[in-house]
Automatic annotation (TrEMBL):
Organism of derivation: Colwellia ponticola
Entry-linked PANTHER family: RHO-INTERACTING TRANSCRIPTION TERMINATION FACTOR NUSG, TRANSCRIPTION TERMINATION_ANTITERMINATION PROTEIN NUSG
Superkingdom as given in the UniProt entry: Bacteria
Classification of source organism: Bacteria, Pseudomonadati, Pseudomonadota, Gammaproteobacteria, Alteromonadales
Protein role: Participates in transcription elongation, termination and antitermination.
GO terms, biological process: DNA-templated transcription elongation; DNA-templated transcription termination; regulation of DNA-templated transcription elongation; transcription antitermination
One Pfam short name: KOW
Keywords: Transcription, Transcription antitermination, Transcription regulation, Transcription termination
Keyword hit for Transcription regulation: yes
Protein known as: Transcription termination/antitermination protein NusG
């Protein structure tokens, strides 16, 4: 038996290109009473960051992109999402089942290990 639970009861997540026309349609949808992230009358809501969307999607077993990352210990990757975005580091551990890897990055002249999801890095060829 499959049991379905609402992740965010009472909320609707919308992916859209924010134009005046699309914003009008969303805010005038029957039953919509307010928006998370908007401050004051007439203001548009702030979009979620990609890492926030990925966190939500991962919690329900999905992801923004297909995780076809094939990387081995010793290879260098570029971090594309999160606090260390833009940095490069060397892979020290790979967990294919959990789609996580450990990467050593250089911070202030010191090697620091951080755990990342596959979708937070790109392989450097």
């Amino acid at each position: 038996k499959e049991i379905v639970h609402k992740t965010f009861p009472g909320y609707v997540l919308v992916e859209m290109i924010m134009t005046d026309a699309s914003w009008y349609v969303v805010r005038n949808t029957p039953g919509v009473t307010g928006f998370v992230g908007s401050h004051g009358a007439g203001s548009k809501p702030a979009p979620l960051l990609p890492e926030e969307v990925n966190h939500i999607l991962r919690s329900i077993g999905m992801s923004l992109r297909q995780n076809d990352l094939e990387v081995e210990v010793g290879e260098v990757v570029k971090i594309i999402e999160g606090a260390f975005a833009g940095l490069e580091g060397q892979v020290t551990e790979v967990d294919g089942e959990k789609e996580k890897l450990k990467v050593n990055i250089d911070m202030f002249g010191r090697e620091t290990s951080t755990e990342l999801d596959f979708d937070q890095v790109d392989k450097i060829d």
